[in-house]
Structure formats: structure tokens, C-alpha cells
Design goal:
alpha/beta, Rossmann fold, 4 strands, 7% strand, elongated, ligase, ligase activity, BRCT_dom_sf
Length: 201
Amino acid sequence: MNEAILVKFGDDRISSRQIDELIGLARGLVADGVINKQEVEFLQKWLVANGAVSNQPVISTLYKRVTEILADGVVDQTEMSELLDTLSRFADRDFELGETLKSTSLPLCKPAPDLRFQGQTYCFTGTFNFGQRKHCEAAMIERGAGVGGLTKKTNTLVIGVYATDSWKHSAFGAKILQACEMRDKGHPIAIVSEEHWARHL
């Protein structure tokens, strides 16, 4: 075995151990169904300590998300619930943050429509690569669109890239199902992926 293969084998073992440790950590954090600022800070410290020796996209993506949450010194309820949902799915090995879902299992509009922003109303659900939901909404407001919950005024529902095959059972599944029902009843609502939305920005 040459040295490069040995180094690669060692790196793979470290990465695998880190993911197992992170899954255990996530299970501990979500066990009581709530997450607080101290727990988010603890998670950030673990990610910092392990990020330098990891080539795992899950660690770098989660680190980016946690750093964004802590950036303003305030962890609000929306940020808490989004992170709790993300960690819960990761703890169940439901998905890895570095992997995106094959869009065939999501009820996206086919073909995906051209998107306009000015005067349109957007709703966001799921976990986004672009940033937190508030960052997605800010990008829309800058372009003249309205944002908010899912209502009859909603023109487009955008589903975050980190969705899973079990999306119907996730925290954001109800919103997707509601949008499908609206569309089935003839309401002109578009359901698109984050990737499609991001291409129009």
C-alpha cells in the first residue's frame, strides 16, 4: 500500500468517526424536543474543533448554518425550530446536509415555470443552501416581491434543497401538501425547488 492510499484510508476513518459522533451529538441535542442558545454554541465549538480535519460537506454546511444563527447574538424561535428540524433529521440518518434530493419525489411543477419577482408573493419552506429562510425572504423583498406564509395570495412556494424522500413526514411537509391541494383545485401556485429559484436571482 502506498502512502497516499494509507492517508486516504486514515482520512476516511476520521470522517466516518466524526459523522457518527455528530449523529450522537445531534440525538442528544434534540432528545427533549427543544434547543437553546447554549446548545447551539456547544454545537458550534464541536464543529470548529472538527472542521479543520474534515472533508465532509455535512460538517462545513452545518457549521455555516450555526455561525449564521449566532452571528447577531440572538437565537430567535424560527432559527431554533429550523435547526431543531435539521438536527432531528440528521440524528435519524434521514439525510446528510451535503446531499440534495432527487427532485422526482417532490411535487414540483413540470416544466418549472419562469419566475418573476416584482409584485409576486413568495413562501419558503424547508432548509436552504442559500442561507436561513430570512435571507431568502430578504432577497425577494429586494427584488420587489412580497413574502409570508402560505395563503391564497401566494404565487410561488420554494422548497429548500435539503429535503428528503420522507418530506411528507417532515416539519415542512404540511405546507407542501397544502400547496399541492391548492394547485389541484386550480389555484395558480407554482411549486419550485431552491435550485430553480436561485437560478432566477
